[in-house]
Amino acid sequence: MTTLTLGAAINAGLSKALETDDRVLLMGEDIGKLGGVFRVTDGLQQRFGAQRVVDTPLAEAGIVGTAVGLALRGYRPVVEIQFDGFVYPAFDQIVCQVAKLHYRSSGRIRMPLVIRIPWAGGVGAAEHHSESPEAYFVHTAGLRVVAASNPQDAYVMLRQAVASDDPVIFFEPKRLYHAKGEVDLEADLADAPPMHLARVAQEGTDATIVTYGAQVRTALDAALAAEDEGLSLEVIDLRSLSPIDMNTVAASVRKTGRVVVTHEAAREAGVGAELVASITEQCFEYLEAPPQRVTGHDIPYPPSKLEKHHVPDLDRILFAVDRVMERGTGSSAASAAAIEGGVR
Amino acid sequence: MTTLTLGAAINAGLSKALETDDRVLLMGEDIGKLGGVFRVTDGLQQRFGAQRVVDTPLAEAGIVGTAVGLALRGYRPVVEIQFDGFVYPAFDQIVCQVAKLHYRSSGRIRMPLVIRIPWAGGVGAAEHHSESPEAYFVHTAGLRVVAASNPQDAYVMLRQAVASDDPVIFFEPKRLYHAKGEVDLEADLADAPPMHLARVAQEGTDATIVTYGAQVRTALDAALAAEDEGLSLEVIDLRSLSPIDMNTVAASVRKTGRVVVTHEAAREAGVGAELVASITEQCFEYLEAPPQRVTGHDIPYPPSKLEKHHVPDLDRILFAVDRVMERGTGSSAASAAAIEGGVR
Amino acid sequence: MTYTQTSPDHGAAAHAGDVDDAARVLEPDGTRVPDAELDPWIADLSPHEMRALHRDMVLTRRLDAEGVALQRQGQLALWAPCRGQEAVQVGTAHALAPGDFVFPSYREHGVLLGRGAQPADYVLAWRGEEHSAYDHTTINAAPPQIIIGAQSLHATGWAMGAQRDGSTDVAVAYYGDGATSQGDVNEAMVFASSFRAPVVFVCSNNQWAISEPVTVQAKYPIAGRAPGFGIPSMRIDGNDALACVAAMRWALDRARRGEGPSFIEAVTYRMGPHTTSDDPTRYRDADEVEAWTRRDPIERLEAYLRAEGMLDDSGLDEVARAADALAADVRAACIGATTRDPATLFDHVYAEPHGPLERQKAEYVQYLAGFEK
Amino acid sequence: MTYTQTSPDHGAAAHAGDVDDAARVLEPDGTRVPDAELDPWIADLSPHEMRALHRDMVLTRRLDAEGVALQRQGQLALWAPCRGQEAVQVGTAHALAPGDFVFPSYREHGVLLGRGAQPADYVLAWRGEEHSAYDHTTINAAPPQIIIGAQSLHATGWAMGAQRDGSTDVAVAYYGDGATSQGDVNEAMVFASSFRAPVVFVCSNNQWAISEPVTVQAKYPIAGRAPGFGIPSMRIDGNDALACVAAMRWALDRARRGEGPSFIEAVTYRMGPHTTSDDPTRYRDADEVEAWTRRDPIERLEAYLRAEGMLDDSGLDEVARAADALAADVRAACIGATTRDPATLFDHVYAEPHGPLERQKAEYVQYLAGFEK
Ligand SMILES: Cc1ncc(C[n+]2csc(CCOP(=O)(O)OP(=O)(O)O)c2C)c(N)n1
Ligand SMILES: Cc1ncc(C[n+]2csc(CCOP(=O)(O)OP(=O)(O)O)c2C)c(N)n1
Ligand SMILES: [Mg+2]
Ligand SMILES: [Mg+2]
């Protein structure tokens, strides 16, 4: 076991992937000498050369489109989109080509492409640098979508994503890039839980919080605060957003009968909508209260001075927990405000 | 009242808008002399000139991006995207600029842009010509998204969309372009129901079908078939997909206690997910059975010879109705198969 | 000529649709004329090869007519005719090596023929049975691209891969005049130039993008764009098969020698409608079409071959028979096609196991089974 | 010079970063040199105007330094320094008429100054209080654009509107060398050319796109691209303020006379980091930066004005005081800024009433009120 930040864990995963398979190559803006604006590819160009760690022209459709061609030639490109808000110029190539080529060719073409996206807010960034576009990709058949919440998962899931013969959108919660954790760099990939499985991040019995990415931390903090109120919350880290591991989610909801879904992206037709719909369909008779969604508001991401009012925090999660517990709302939330300072 | 096809009703709406406001202009590929590949803009260039009905270069980002600039200069551009599958190159301009400029400028800039999209399948078209991308736009704050299901709505809502100071994604169900209906071309816009309201297309008491676009017809056919089974189905035509008129939806669900949501787009994180989630949140104690979603499968749109297995038809809707009615599934569906021939 | 100059002043005279100043070695009437840049590349072209070019053009035209007929008869949902564009399609494909890989648009029937497509390959997608009928590895051709221009980036990426493999394989992107307005096509030039990728861009300027004349996309000759990206270009008469072979050989040779991308603008004409759904009489003059019949690519090469004694009536008969045979095979492949089991709808969305989709499949199969009772 | 030729052979010698062959009227040491194409456009430039250019460049530099300082002190979240690029920003803005409209990127502080921005306008977005601080109608400038290249299309569309209005207003898009790789920027050239839109594209080739040298985007001078789209271009020394005024006047004049778009590549250098978050020592040599200090745009004009007796110590003192005063005002506007009420988060998502969002707002306001009890 090694202690690594989430960013360093991804770096280690990329390094291992480059080492293991010479058809793997990295492409992106500023990923070479600079090592990426978050230093996630630090040192890789120096080690593997400019043919395998490629600084591309500044054009996201171009990056993804040429990666499609490289995949057709037998390569396994790992593409970096510099920030979440810059993936949209590549949307056409992702939706019409990356996602569909396997289907369009009746399975003859494979698209083992990974698209890494530093993702979401809470870091005081400028406009377009704090987007949560995951629902767009979850709604797109043909893509797999994952989001790591800790260094160990980041390392393992990155390697699984690279090994997958399907295209994977790999979301990296940028406000956790510096969060540390233990990583087993030597473990056999075959022993690791498959990428598509969710993880019970904390067991509990009174209500379930389903979330992913950086919100997993916030949910765990909320569970801790709720303990003081005598509430036992189960926290599920989805890890895979498409497909969603409904077995794990439904098992938890059947146990607790109450569920709060939280994410940073807007609510309307977000991943939370899919979760609440699927939970309702599959666990209807177990639900003791309507599920609650705690999400970013249905607004564009706000200026950074106001982002703390947009990204759901501990209090907003607890407020929703109170509602699913059918308790007078606001009580535990207000009391939890005291410990909020330490959370983000 | 005049009898018009849905396509002709939109043509009439565009014509009226061009007539009424000289800041309105139309832009798109082949909309001039040809009158659009569906003839929706037929005769308009001849009547209003090439400065107001503009054949653009073949580049969707360019069309939408220049429309943004025209809006900044005080124009009200109505953009045509030739087919649903060709909107993705413009996705970046739509999501980062069209949807956000009003917010980004603290309300100083207005984006009175309409983006018309011939939409969805069932017409035997080639690849990329039968897409249902509405959920992407519904998930995007700052956009309004509407879908007409009949000539009267098409005419009125088009004019309301052009009059709106917000950007509107205007979906035109292409398999209904030739469907006829009565249109009141002279009615005062002020008397018409606002664009954001849903419509009870048929009243019923046993269960509610919520849908939009071309599926409204299929749902009405299903309701007719269900009558033979002694079932009274209420059909709601959403008309507006963002915002969704939950008042109308919830009122119906509170009445029937049972609901089927249907659309052609993929299920995962689609508009149906939002509907089921919102219905569950708002009508939990009224629900007598878990809501059912009847959607396109979570696959890319298939080759046209197979599309009848993808686009939800009467039978699949009735099958789901049986389930929400908690009746032995398959019975009414199988019996309804007899009348299916006349449906699509 | 190599396009090295795009002065706006010069350009003001030129017109994006002009064919007169495009390079050629055969005049419309089949007369052989010298061209210093093109001639070296076809000096060794044998009579046998020239006859093959002619034959493939005839086959392409016949096949194309069959596609139109099958659509009219309700056997195909749609067809995009390539009549008039046989020279650029066949000529450029002819110059390829087996290891090269083409990225065609929907209209490149002659390119597919040149790559060795089988009868069913031409029609199953247009019939709506499959999105892409052929195996890309068998004929080294990507699925036909409908998203205008997207394939230009795929070709560039494939070429970057070929370069990394140390091979001499070349990627070829085929697209139309309309496509040159798309961001993707321009980004492809940036990437190709930046990485010196062994890719050839073949732009068939057939004067129309559905109803829009090329002048909506470009005021000046399209070939003038590439040099600005550091990519040398040629502007050739796309109805002169020999010029098309020559230009393609020039471009392929550059690519194989590590000199990077090239651009070919082949000035040609779409004699038919955009697709069988289109009615070109709404937007273009009969005169224009009529004028282009006098530049027919097949008649041009035929006249030359006859004049040179390389082709006679019996040779022509043989070609006509081969063309009819191909058409018959295509027709048989089309009419004999059966629609696959709806359960296969759910296959190949993912290459690896996917539980939820497998459940959707099982449910749908079960649902369908309910009707069989 | 007007860029009319982009031969790949010629280009092989040229380099996208070369500044030596860019047109100028002031040598780096301030010596006035003739340039036949530029001279006529600045023949009437008065000493007063030249002093104003100098002054605005000094103000821009001071303001920029204040931005960096405010960021270091935690008052701003980020800042994108423009040091070294003052001549192209101030020079081109200087040539504008009030009715013209600029579409800047995030780095164009000198352009905003030229448009009459107020102190708070420079900093509130960087502080994270607003996405865009200024009123676009007051200074005729669109919100600063972060999505690289997107504004090139907006400028083109605005110009199409101005054209329809029969006005002589011109739109100006500002972007960097990196932006030229984006599809949008190329599509903007297609639309501008096709519609002869009165728009000027000003590309500040500052040699770097974050850590990528311009050669990743372009092998040959960027100015060579526009002519291929039918857009005349000039490649000028972007550190020569007089050349920048001249080129901009040339371009604006063309636009106002109905001759359509023009392209200006101003070869300059980003002296500082990409933003305050960047560490350029990781990717570029101190030597290179050092060499460019000797081409400083302010010193260059200053040397010329002094030599010509147009500026003396007291004039310089006065400018320095004005610069300090501006910096103080900017600092005060920044430090004095307050964060708005969180309830306003929900405002201006839509221009027209929106029930569901109003309910979200009401719920959130009520939720917040719960903490105040
Ligand atoms: C992204 C995209 N936009 C629009 C279309 C619709 N469309 C299909 S073909 C075509 C014209 C293409 O013209 P050109 O590139 O000249 O090729 P040609 O058809 O003449 O061979 C258009 C607009 C499309 N297929 N893809
Ligand atoms: C679409 C998009 N992709 C990536 C980025 C990240 N990014 C911000 S600035 C920049 C470099 C821009 O370089 P250039 O165009 O030369 O302008 P400069 O910063 O040098 O002024 C990049 C890659 C972005 N803002 N937008
Ligand atoms: Mg064409
Ligand atoms: Mg730059």
UniProtKB/TrEMBL annotation, chains A, B:
<dbReference type="Pfam" id="PF02779">
    <property type="entry name" value="Transket_pyr"/>
</dbReference>
<keyword id="KW-0786">Thiamine pyrophosphate</keyword>
<feature type="domain" description="Transketolase-like pyrimidine-binding">
    <location>
        <begin position="4"/>
        <end position="179"/>
    </location>
</feature>
<dbReference type="GO" id="GO:0000287">
    <property type="term" value="F:magnesium ion binding"/>
</dbReference>
<dbReference type="InterPro" id="IPR005475">
    <property type="entry name" value="Transketolase-like_Pyr-bd"/>
</dbReference>
<keyword id="KW-0670">Pyruvate</keyword>
<dbReference type="InterPro" id="IPR029061">
    <property type="entry name" value="THDP-binding"/>
</dbReference>
<dbReference type="InterPro" id="IPR009014">
    <property type="entry name" value="Transketo_C/PFOR_II"/>
</dbReference>
<dbReference type="GO" id="GO:0016491">
    <property type="term" value="F:oxidoreductase activity"/>
</dbReference>
<protein>
    <submittedName>
        <fullName>Pyruvate dehydrogenase E1 component beta subunit</fullName>
    </submittedName>
</protein>
<dbReference type="Pfam" id="PF02780">
    <property type="entry name" value="Transketolase_C"/>
</dbReference>
<keyword id="KW-0560">Oxidoreductase</keyword>
<dbReference type="InterPro" id="IPR033248">
    <property type="entry name" value="Transketolase_C"/>
</dbReference>
From TrEMBL, chains C, D:
<protein>
    <submittedName>
        <fullName>Pyruvate dehydrogenase E1 component alpha subunit</fullName>
    </submittedName>
</protein>
<dbReference type="GO" id="GO:0000287">
    <property type="term" value="F:magnesium ion binding"/>
</dbReference>
<dbReference type="GO" id="GO:0009083">
    <property type="term" value="P:branched-chain amino acid catabolic process"/>
</dbReference>
<keyword id="KW-0786">Thiamine pyrophosphate</keyword>
<dbReference type="Pfam" id="PF00676">
    <property type="entry name" value="E1_dh"/>
</dbReference>
<dbReference type="InterPro" id="IPR001017">
    <property type="entry name" value="DH_E1"/>
</dbReference>
<dbReference type="InterPro" id="IPR050771">
    <property type="entry name" value="Alpha-ketoacid_DH_E1_comp"/>
</dbReference>
<keyword id="KW-0670">Pyruvate</keyword>
<dbReference type="GO" id="GO:0016624">
    <property type="term" value="F:oxidoreductase activity, acting on the aldehyde or oxo group of donors, disulfide as acceptor"/>
</dbReference>
<keyword id="KW-0560">Oxidoreductase</keyword>
<feature type="domain" description="Dehydrogenase E1 component">
    <location>
        <begin position="55"/>
        <end position="325"/>
    </location>
</feature>
<dbReference type="InterPro" id="IPR017596">
    <property type="entry name" value="PdhA/BkdA"/>
</dbReference>
<dbReference type="InterPro" id="IPR029061">
    <property type="entry name" value="THDP-binding"/>
</dbReference>
